[in-house]
Design brief:
The protein is 47% helix and 17% strand. By secondary structure, the protein is α/β, with parallel strands linked by helices. The chain has one domain: TIM Barrel (Alpha-Beta Barrel), CATH 3.20.20.30. Helix 3 crosses helix 5 and helix 6 packs parallel to helix 7. The chain is globular and about 60 Å long.
């Protein structure tokens, strides 16, 4: 089993923001020494939910503090970029890290971001997918020629090329059934989101594998990271309180900009996270829960998002060795 960390940079304003960054980078150094496959850096804008507007810039710092672990983005919001700049910057990360880049791309969800970057939400899915297409073409070809709906380029040599050829491994964040179908239709790998209940993740995985097969693609050999929020403490009761606090923070910050989901209007969102989304408990209980989920869904790559420093340390010291053995 592979295990990575979905690294947020949540800021409560009680401590300096530079302290948040330094603590995260210290944890990333610990990850490199303890068997984690990758750190995945989350991009967000205009929100204390995670103050990381440039995952490529943060990735260079993470690469400089590590030697073995892969450096991922989960995700770069590809539709908000000029795609040639994105291709260049990601390729530089791959070069500077010695070929350790994992690229995850996504559409985004926060209406504030769409407004500030002047991107029409109705066009955002097409725009981000075209941006992904351009980045891949820029990496794979000596010179780029592209004529699409949003961008047109002729005979452009995009440099540098990434160290990993023809391109670094890449994934598209795919949460909705439509997005999953689109990704499977192209044969792309996907990232599973940290906010859907366990049962929905299993259903989405099944849909993805069916759609891959329907379009002539195999499921074999694919890493499909499943992101899960994580709360661990010495006792189950203490961990549940960590899970509740994390759920309250998530709903209060992330939830403010999230598009509403049909059918969730009458559900207490905090309780939904605690009951059906966050993996929580003592180290022994969490290890048992992960073992159970491996049997219930395709959980061969866990991308965990710890909700406290204690969670991270207990997971690293007591749970991770069991998963890697």
């Amino acid at each position: 089993m592979k295990v990575g960390v979905l690294q947020f940079f949540s800021w409560s304003r009680r401590v300096p923001l530079e302290t948040v960054y330094e603590r995260a980078l210290e944890r990333i150094a610990i990850m490199d020494d303890t068997g984690y496959d990758a750190v995945w850096l989350a991009e967000h804008h205009f929100n204390t939910y995670s103050v990381c507007p440039s995952p490529t810039l943060m990735a260079t710092h993470a690469a400089a503090r590590t030697k073995r672990m892969r450096i991922g983005t989960a995700v770069t919001l590809a539709g908000f970029y000029q795609p040639l700049r994105l291709a260049e910057e990601l390729a530089m990360v791959d070069m500077l890290s010695g070929g350790r880049l994992n690229w995850g791309a996504g559409r985004g969800f926060d209406m504030k971001e769409f407004r500030a970057f002047d991107v029409d939400p109705a066009d955002s899915a097409e725009r981000y997918r075209e941006s992904v297409e351009i980045v891949l073409k820029a990496w794979r070809n000596e010179k780029l020629n592209h004529e699409g709906k949003y961008w047109r380029f002729e005979d452009v040599e995009v440099l540098p090329k990434p160290m990993q050829q023809p391109n670094p491994p890449f994934w598209l964040a795919s949460s909705s059934p439509e997005a999953i179908r689109k990704s499977a239709e192209a044969g792309y790998n996907i990232l599973m989101d940290p906010h859907s209940p366990y049962a929905e993740i299993g259903e989405k995985q099944a849909l993805y594998h069916r759609e891959l097969a329907a379009h002539g693609f195999s499921s074999e050999g694919r890493d499909i990271p499943v992101a899960r929020l994580l709360a661990i403490a010495e006792t189950d009761d203490e961990a549940r309180e960590v899970a509740r606090a994390g759920a309250q923070w998530t709903v209060g910050s992330y939830g403010q900009g999230k598009r509403p989901v049909s059918g969730e209007e009458d559900v207490d969102p905090v309780q939904r996270y605690v009951d059906d989304v966050v993996i929580h408990g003592s180290p022994a209980k969490v290890a048992d829960t992960i073992a159970r989920l491996r049997g219930e869904m395709d959980l061969e790559y866990l991308m965990c998002a710890p909700l406290s420093h204690e969670t991270f340390m207990l997971f690293t010291e007591q749970v991770l060795p069991k998963l890697l053995s």
